Every structure is written in C-alpha cells, then in structure tokens.
Amino acid sequence: MATFRLEVVTAERMVFADDVNEVVAWGMEGQLGILPHHAPLMTMLQPGDLLIKKDNEEEYLAISGGFLEVRPDKVIILADASERAEEIDVARAEAAKRRAEATLKERPPGVDAAAEAALRRSLARLKVAERRRRKPRGTA
Amino acid sequence: MVSTQILRRRIRSVQGTAKICKAMEMIATAKMRRAQEQAIAGRPYAEEISKVVSDLAVEAQAGGKVHPLLQKREVQKIAIIHMTTDRGLCGGLNANQNRLVAGFILGQTVPVTLVTMGRKGRTFARSAQRNLRAEFTGISDRPSLLETLPISRVVIDDYSNGGVDLVYLAYPRFITTMIQRPAMEVLLPIEPAVLPRVQVAEYIYEPDPSAVLGELLPRYVEMKVYHAILELVASEQSARMVAMRNASDNAKELIEDLTLALHKVRQEMITKEICDISGGAEALV
Hints:
Chain A has helices at 90-106, 113-134, and strands at 4-9, 14-20, 22-27, 30-34, 41-54, 57-70, 74-79, 82-84. By secondary structure, chain A is an alpha+beta fold.
C-alpha cells in the first residue's frame, strides 16, 4: 500500500510522526480524507478527532484546532493541542464538557463562540478516548 | 585571639550553607535539562509555522489587504515584553536584562510601556517608574503553552487596536550553560522571514489564503512568546546552577581556611598549656 509521511506537531512537542496510508481530519468545510499523492493543500482544522490509518490499524488523535498542510513530501498538522487516546484525561474532558454546556445553556446558541469551541474540543477528546476503550490496542 | 568555640560554630554554619548551595545546584541542573528538552521538542512546530507564515505573507500581500499584525506604522508608542525570573540567586541574569531594557528605554524619544514577566522585572518597572501595561508572575518551571497565552494576548490586542506601534520581546537568550545573553527582538509587526521558496504547484487554501493567514499569525506570535519563556527558564536554571556551584566552591574554600585557623588556635593553646605545666613543674623543683 502506498504511504506518505504524517507529522502532527504542537508548540510543545511532536505528537505523531510516521508513514501512514490515510488521514481523515475535520477541515473547515467538513471532513476530509487525505490519501497519498494529494494535491498541495493548506486548510484550517476544526476541533475534532483525527483518524490515522496505517496498514490495517486505525489510530485516533484528538485535535483542538489548527492547520493541516499537504506538501509534496509530507503532510503536516500544526495543532493547537493534540493528544493520543491513551493520554486523554477522561474525567477532565467530561468536566470541561459539562462546563461548556452549562455556559451555553445560559446564553442563546451562537452568542458564546468560545464556549462552543470549548464544547467541541472536549467532545473530540471524549470521542477519541471512548474509541480507545472500546477497542484496546492490538485488537483493531 | 578567637576562641575555638567561635571558629567551630562558624565552620558548622558555612557547612550548612554549602549543603544548601549544593542542593540548589543539583535541582537547577535537573530543571535546566528539562527546560532544554522542552525547547528542543517545540522546534519542529516553530520551523513549520515560520515557513508557512513566510509563504503565506507573500501570497496574501499580493491580494492588496495587509493583515493588521503585518502592518508597519509610524512608531508613536513602543511596548516591551520584559522577561525576568521570579526568584533570585541566579547570578547577574536579571540585572543584565534590566540594564538592557533600561538602556533601550533611555534611548527612545517615544513613550515606552512595559509588559513584565517575572517578579524581578516587575520590581524594576516599579522602581524605574515605568508605565506598566501588564505584569505576569508565577510561570512554572515547566511552562505550558496555555500559561503563556495571556501574555501574547495583551500585545496582540494592543497592537491590533493601535495602542502600540512596535512590540519588542526582551529575554535572556540561552547560548550555553555558562553563557546567557540578554536579547531583544521585534515581535510585532511580524517580519516574515524570507525563506527560499520551494516552487511547487499552486496550493489549495481552505477557506482562503487571507483567512488562513489571519488565524496563523496570532499563533506565530504565541509560539514566539512561548519559546522566549522556554529560553528564560533554561537561562534561569543554568545561571542558577553556575551561581550555586561558585557559591559551594567558595564555601569549601572558606571551610578549609577556617579549619586551618581552628587548628592553629588549638595548637597554640596546647603549646601554652605545656609551657605552663613545665614552667610550674620547674618552679616546684
């Protein structure tokens, strides 16, 4: 299977770097999948989960917004924050989700963009962590 | 003559100080290593974002509208992010930093405001009666990006709404464990590095180049500030390590001198006693 190099970096560290077969991310205009030999692209990312397919394994990362750049030699994701499934603090993400929901309940939707973004970030983390629990490593 | 008791007490006290210095040196060594690792870990992001910003700045400027953070204006007000440590005992690190900034301010004809990071810089700003825009303290030894965002926020907002026209970033640059040099660079307006462009097929931008650039530039500033903080932490710990090593070396020397003095006094006393005894014995015969 054809592969390409994927790097997920944050200001603090390199989260992921490997040759992969496919990546599915949440772009500004919806989900987009990147396969090898994709045309050069630069897009903003929404907070969400990032699916990485390698051989027959799938891995999920939580991404709190950022940028995705497809270059001829590799694909780079400049994430504001990113965690692998096993790094996610589920309790903290739950709490963040509840906080964001409470903020949103008090105000009409659309007013508080920050709270909405916070909600999306915590949902992304929970989703990634949930997938990991259902499908422990090695059984994918 | 000094009594042996006083000398003994003095030696014990110096030994105690030496122990503390040694412990602080070792702690600083460990923290320095971690700070250096952190600085290295963030490097790929820094390189990438600089590359993209330089690519995009050219692209977006061709469109005519210049992003606020790229706009150059006539300088009527300057802001400096003045980075120092919270704690002392790190040699001349903060003094050098304060001197650089003070020298710069004195050379300016336009008003300068300070955004300080660290208690030492705050004290400096207050005693120098400088205009203090914001002050931040209590950054941890393992700073996260999140902790540094409020600092960038202040200057980005001030720059965007025209409050200041030039923003400098002053921090102790970590060169080696022995050398840290006070550095000062322009943070805003952003001057995109001119990098050799790899000419490839046209990029697809989603949603469009100026929107991407608009999101990218604040992050670029945040990254710069975050990296300056990492340099600050690495500099602080290595300066402290060196200062504490000198201090414990000095303490060791002092202990040696004092021990020698103690032995001399003790010997003299014994000699005197023998003299007295033999003198007394002679008188009896």
